[in-house]
Design a protein that fits this description.
335 residues; mainly alpha; MetI-like fold; 15 helices
Length: 335
């Protein structure tokens, strides 16, 4: 049964990825822009532009262009960026590790804050009403507002954290096997660089994680309060277990399904906000890359980033589905 469930989800994942690739292709095909003119330059003659259109295959029928696109995509070719004049795949290969570092740090902060606040507010106690109000207010603040407030308070006023960038000016350039600066610094023994990267991560990662963390906390709190009223919780109390033991041993695991379900949607919100956060904090990832691509009307770069972000979102949600099977035995019975 589980094998059939996994195979079904894998097939569904492939279909979703194919739909995503098709949408990205159509996006590039229908955007009202002239790629040939952008590649040839603003002062290019009509003859040069026509030649460039032929080189790019823009004169071919749409279906032929779609098949060519799939073939190039299978070879890892995402076309050439207009504003960097480099293959988009190479640009993304350089920018994506920084974005993934920021995203993973944000997910870690989301889990820590969501778990801590959700557990603390699950049981009625003094001050939880005020904390619930803070949760509601905090979850309503846009990510760009959080980023600007964090810069104003912790950089401009207090001077505790740097304003932006991945490392401080003058930091040695670390080259390692993974492409992730923090991990490469750790593997190559540059512990000062490792700490520097982590210090620069704090503000952007927290700004990106705070709203999803508070939404996770609210969802976990509701699930825990429901679980603590179930018969198995009453039975555990009757056996002499303390309220803390009932919560951690029994209620928590049975309450993780709802937060995991909403985490897929929260990941989408994080991916949508990552461009804003990277722009505010000058973080050298794909968010900053697409911001510059949009300013330059760089359609291949925009489509490349859209495809990568979409794949990350789809794969991450597939991982969330797998985690739900692990934490909730009831799902495995119906798989």
């Amino acid at each position: 049964m589980i094998l059939r469930f996994v195979l079904g989800r894998a097939l569904g994942l492939l279909v979703v990825l194919w739909v995503l690739v098709t949408i990205v292709f159509m996006l590039g095909a229908v955007i009202p822009s002239e790629p040939a003119r952008a590649y040839a330059g603003a002062g290019a003659s009509p003859a040069v532009i026509a030649q460039k259109r032929e080189e790019l295959g823009l004169e071919k029928p749409l279906l032929t262009r779609y098949v060519d696109y799939l073939e190039r995509l299978g070879q890892g070719d995402l076309s050439e960026s207009v504003h960097t004049h480099q293959p988009v795949a190479d640009d993304l290969r350089e920018a994506f590790p920084a974005t993934l570092e920021l995203l993973l740090a944000s997910i870690g902060i989301t889990m820590l804050i969501g778990l801590a606040v959700g557990v603390v507010t699950a049981r009625p106690r003094r001050g939880t009403g005020l904390l619930r109000g803070a949760l509601l207010a905090g979850a309503s603040v846009p990510v760009f507002t959080l980023g600007l407030l964090a810069l104003f308070l912790f950089y401009y006023k207090l001077g505790w954290f740097p304003a932006g960038g991945q490392t401080a000016p003058g930091t040695i350039h670390v080259v390692g096997p993974t492409g992730f600066l923090s991990l490469d610094a750790l593997l190559t023994g540059h512990f000062g660089v490792f700490v520097n990267v982590l210090w620069h991560l704090v503000l952007p990662a927290t700004a990106l994680a705070l709203t999803p963390a508070l939404l996770t906390a609210r969802t976990l709190r509701s699930s825990l309060r429901h679980s603590l009223r179930q018969d198995y919780a009453r039975t555990a109390r009757a056996k002499g277990l303390t309220e803390r033991q009932v919560l951690w041993r029994h209620a928590l695991r049975n309450s993780l399904n709802a937060p995991l379900t909403i985490s897929g949607l929260e990941l989408g919100a994080m991916l949508a906000g990552i461009a804003v956060v990277e722009t505010i904090f000058a973080w050298p990832g794909i968010g900053l890359y697409i911001d510059r691509a949009i300013a330059a009307n760089d359609v291949p770069a925009i489509c490349g980033v859209t495809l990568v972000v979409g794949v990350v979102f789809v794969v991450a949600n597939a991982i969330v589905d797998a985690l739900q099977l692990v934490v909730d035995p009831r799902l495995r019975q119906h798989a």
